Amino acid sequence: MELIYEKSVAGRRGVRLPASDVPPAAELPSQYLRSVDTTLPELSELDVVRHFTQLSRRNIGVDSTFYPLGSCTMKYNAKALEEAARLFAPFHPVTPLLPGGERHAQGGLAMLHQMGGFLAEITGMDEVTCQPLAGAHGEMTGIMLIAAYHKAKGNRKKYVIVPDSSHGTNPASAAMVGYEIITIPTAPYGDMDLDAFRAALTDEVAAVMMTCPNTLGLFNPHIKEICDLAHAKGALVYYDGANLNAILGQVRPGDVGFDVVHVNLHKTFGTPHGSGGPGSGPVGVKKELIPFLPVPRVVKAADNRFTLMTDAPQSIGRTANYFGNFGVMAKAYAYILMLGREGLIEVSELAVLNANYVMSRLKDLYELPYDQTCMHECVFSASRQLQHDVHAIDIAKFLIDKGYHPPTVYFPLIVREAIMIEPTETESKETLDAFIAVMREAALLAGTDPDALKKAPLTTPVGRLDETKAAREQNVCYFGC
Amino acid sequence: MSFTPHTPGEIREMLDAIGVGSIKELFGPIPQELRAKSFDLPAGMSEFEMLDRIKGLAVDNGCELLSFIGGGYYDHLIPAVVDHLAGRSEFYTAYTPYQPECSQGSLQALFEYQTAICRLTGLDVSNASLYDGGTALAEAAMMALRVTGRSRIVIDGAVNPFHRSVVKTYLANLAVDIVELPPVDGLLDRQALTAELDDRCAAVLVQNPTAFGCVADYGDLADAVHASGALLVASVYPISLGMLKSPAEMGVDIAVGDGQSLGNHLSFGGPAFGFIAAKKQYIRNLPGRIVGETVDKEGRRGFVLTLQAREQHIKRHKATSNICSNQSLCALRGLIFLSGIGREGLRELARLNRDKAEYAKGLLAKVKGVAVLSSAPTFNEFTIALPKPADEVVAALLERGIAAGIPLGQYYQGAENCLVVTVTEKRTRAEIERLAAELEGVLWS
User: Fold this and answer.
1) CATH fold of B80-337, please?
2) What does the pLDDT look like over B358-405, one tens digit per residue?
3) Contact (CB<8Å) B271/A320
């Protein structure tokens, strides 16, 4: 398909702008003006509409088909959430920062405050900041809070511990805050190796970052012990909320002993992923960490009005321009209101039911490296198919031809040929049955006609793409560099 | 109300297939002592009740005000095509394009977005978006630290105060010095900068136009910065690039900015997007996702996420950044916006902004006791000095339904009487005249 720049016709105009009602200003001196053209496309409005409509047809989303991308929680994105966010579209974020401006932003501030309250109750924490703009941004903010806490206490800490099953963002976020990383291997039963953990846990450890359930979809029954061991050494424990959807209403990280939590609103609370973002990564903390939270903080004054607090001498400062991805929060807030207490509990129950159902129906044909009751997702290995030279990627591409978005493959890194399936609670039994049938067909084809898998996909606008060429040639701009 | 389709019969069949008696049993691996101690949330409701409740919060948020505020986020027109096309669910309900064959739509769109950012800034390479302008500036500073192996960042005090604050937060735990140069008349203090350019300086961070609205040309600066071995980083306002000299034309190495003004609603501060573009030699140091062109076996053109060995899911703690989710949909909105108004449209839009702002500047300068702060040229934002504290004036004008601008007192020492006024294409002549009249009224009656 042509690029929008290839469709450009010199002199063609699209959207018309309002006529000017003021006299033209004198030209700026030429030293301030650009002389290199922008070469933006020149198209009619209909050209633009056709182009992006055609592009959208070369994409699939949760609305198009089953999208069991493990770890990403591709649940249905309720349409009413979009309506809710749209209501706040015209509000300028600087309004409440003006002298006397808070009065003109009470609704927005109230929502931020209530959202913080909901998330604190859901995670069992004392206070929540909504400023972080995505999960990884929340992780970095959380580790900064931990660093500020240790600094205030005069603690000299150098390391952050992560299990080898963790998301790559965990070590990357801790490194951004200047920590060195200690990686703990996974024991044969699928949880972090406790002996290795104990050995690594010294007084110099600032924090331990845990995902629970972990990326194998398993709940670590020793999680409280890990928190206690860490606390005994003066380390804080960080809860990566990427998989919070599995334990909504069942377990609260704060009750278990976690000190800092981030929540991915775009996973657990049903806001859409937008082809890779925007997300939103609010961070919850226990009391001792409240003084370090980012500013401005929304607080409720004695007269029940909402106000912004910027005077917090121990605060880590701003981690983003304003108050976070407010529009995403509006959607998650709407989601929490609609589901309510019972609905949120049902989310975890049926997400876990769906994942275990898929696992039970596929484990005779696919290797299940950690064969136990899973939580919201299950991780298979294509190791049996490998004897026919069929890889996880071949199964993924076959699924595309069958009309599905594939599961996550090759993650977590500790499982060879990993196939990570997260059905989510919004999928019906017949959707799962149809998917299971195709997964079973793929497993059989691996033995009888492996080429059928290796040739896939055949139904897409392009076949498998040459990633090496892309990396070598680095062609990232149509007009070249 | 949890959008779950399961009937009791289906749940039974599924439990049987799994071989357990109840859903509760599936939570067996969780020790009893770890169970939630509380889960005190309201009962659920229908979407209609929910929307009624949210409508109650969506009033009284400054919309009724006549607004002359900017400060990084700008109230621009958004053509209907943007909401309509970005609202296609194939885009907004998709995930990151990990499987390129069924994600060519978003991959091609992001390639086209990268191209647009390269063309606007004049630089060679762009990533597929960052969170916002503040975090993009912080990422650029970290990039410069990696590229140069040095440990000091020099930042112009005329850079947006919110963005400066984000940079400080990001660098606070690293062994990095930050030198902030107090601005002179709304512009970089070039003399003070010269003294800072030594072999420890990794980057000089500037902004155009500055937080005071002043338009600068950093072209003469680049050579000195480069001679010291540092990089020149500029934060820019994309709408102004329809008119103003591009970062590349000034010799800038890394350009960043807030993309909000390109088709993204103000939305109380987000979501919008940040952009980052750089000279080609720094491509491997860029943070976040990058889309590259390639071919399939039959030679058909296609697009993939590329140079992923820089990223956290491969490199873990050695990645160029921790960013995973970015602001793709907002970047897509930016691309649709730019495509919709097109090459000539962006030029016209920039001109319209400047014309309106110049008209306002002229009018406000005639108000008794009001002076324009700097003689430097401006784009759609300018700073005026008032005869009394700007906080008082702004508060008084708010009472009259006008958000007159951003007082600088809380961001700059000695600037208590200064006010930054923003005038976009959305403000009419009559509204500008009303601002001048009401300002006069607040000051002198």
Assistant:
1) Aspartate Aminotransferase; domain 2 (3.40.640)
2) 999 999 999 999 999 999 999 999 999 999 999 999 999 999 999 999
3) no
